[in-house]
Design goal:
The protein has about 350 residues and is an alpha/beta fold. It has a single domain (about 20-345), classed as TIM Barrel (Alpha-Beta Barrel), CATH 3.20.20. It is built from 16 helices and eight strands. It has helices at about 25-35, 40-50, 55-65, 70-80, 95-115, 135-145, 170-180, 190-200, 210-220, 225-230, 235-240, 245-260, 275-280, 290-300, 320-325, 330-345, and strands at about 15-20, 80-85, 120-125, 150-155, 180-185, 235, 280-285, 305. The chain has an eight-stranded parallel beta sheet with strand order 1-2-3-4-5-6-7-8.
Length: about 350
């Protein structure tokens, strides 16, 4: 057994992108796989994690479904004081509308019970079914007002469609009205993006997830989402899916495209792309524990917009916690990173 990482006397460690899923959803995933669902991203992701006999796949399956002793034990070993839990990719977004709505509601009820049983350990993000935007907005309201959820999680595209499409904007309006952030989490790239990534073996977390979700987030910005919903806060994992490192070029090339009217359907925005990144986007370190990208993101986005996350159970390496403990950033910035930013964003106290 690995040595436990002790509590830190200067801050609590709040992990802000920790995955879970109810058995009922995984049983439905198995049915889709057995039926031969025509979705290459889902087949690649869950064809492996649900069907493969490897040790990694088995551990992921077991840990995802545990909201009790095993997860709490793993948190203790890694020194994580509190976990913000979200429904794993692709969540309910792979199903047809009615089943998706039903499973979102069930998932939120199960997660709410776990948060109630362990209020000092868990905070929940609500799952919704974008297949029915009105039902999704209604479920988010129930999850926040009745169940105590603190955010909404959406696993990127829904049947190859993105939140930049105005038909989904009732969900974004609900997030803004309820004052809860939207965590845009990856899943397998959409049908139009995935083919060469699968061929290269790069469609998953190694690269394709970032391509998919970075594109999704950027398309939300350039479609005018944040002009319409200026108070909406979007959370991106994996160090912002690389977007913080592209800010200068994004500003330059987006402005050039608008001036040239190259894309008539692209609206002129009120601000620069980088302004929306600094005002409407928060990033987490899930799966990206190296100091240099964390420091750089703090520099370009601001210390208030970078939070700690582990990416449990997909990247459960307790030594990464120590790596981030040992970063050579100031004490105040480190406490923001590990604790107080998450407390503010998710309205929690630990």
């Amino acid at each position: 057994m690995a040595d436990e990482i002790p509590p830190n006397p200067d801050y609590k460690r709040i992990a802000t992108e920790e995955a879970w899923g109810p058995p009922e959803m995984f049983q439905a995933y198995e049915r889709l796989l057995d039926e031969g669902i025509d979705d290459p991203g889902f087949q690649s992701l869950w064809g492996f994690y649900w069907k493969h006999p490897s040790e990694r796949a088995s551990l992921i399956r077991e840990r995802l479904q545990d909201l009790g002793e095993r997860r709490l034990h793993d948190m203790k070993v890694s020194g994580v004081d509190h976990a913000v839990l979200g429904l794993t990719a692709p969540g309910v977004q792979i199903f047809q509308k009615d089943e998706a709505v039903e499973l979102a509601r069930l998932s939120n009820d199960v997660l709410a019970e776990a948060c109630k049983a362990h209020p000092d350990k868990y905070t929940g993000m609500a799952a919704v079914a974008p297949q029915d935007p009105k039902a999704a907005a209604d479920e988010l309201e129930r999850a926040v007002k009745t169940l105590g959820m603190k955010a909404c999680v959406i696993n990127s595209h829904t049947h190859d469609e993105y939140l930049s499409d105005q038909k989904f904007w009732p969900i974004l309006e609900a997030c803004e009205t309820l004052d809860v952030p939207l965590y845009l989490h990856p899943q397998g790239p959409s049908r139009g993006l995935i083919a060469p990534l699968v061929k290269a073996g790069l469609d998953g977390a190694v690269f394709g997830f970032g391509v998919e979700t970075g594109f999704h987030a950027l398309s939300m910005i350039t479609s005018g989402v944040f002009d319409r919903f200026p108070k909406l806060q979007l959370i991106l994992g994996h160090m912002g899916e690389a977007l913080p490192f592209w800010l200068y070029r994004l500003d330059y090339m987006h402005a050039a495209g608008i001036r040239s009217k190259r894309y008539p359907h692209m609206p002129e925005l009120k601000k620069k792309v980088s302004d929306y990144m600094r005002e409407n986007v928060i990033v987490t370190s899930s799966g990206m524990p190296a100091e240099a990208p964390i420091r750089y993101s703090q520099e370009v986005l601001g210390e208030d917009r970078v939070m700690y996350a582990m990416d449990y159970p997909y990247q459960y390496l307790p030594e990464e916690v120590t790596m981030q403990d040992n970063m050579s950033i100031g004490a105040a910035a480190k406490k923001k990173f590990f604790q107080t930013n998450a407390e503010r964003v998710f309205k929690i106290r630990v």
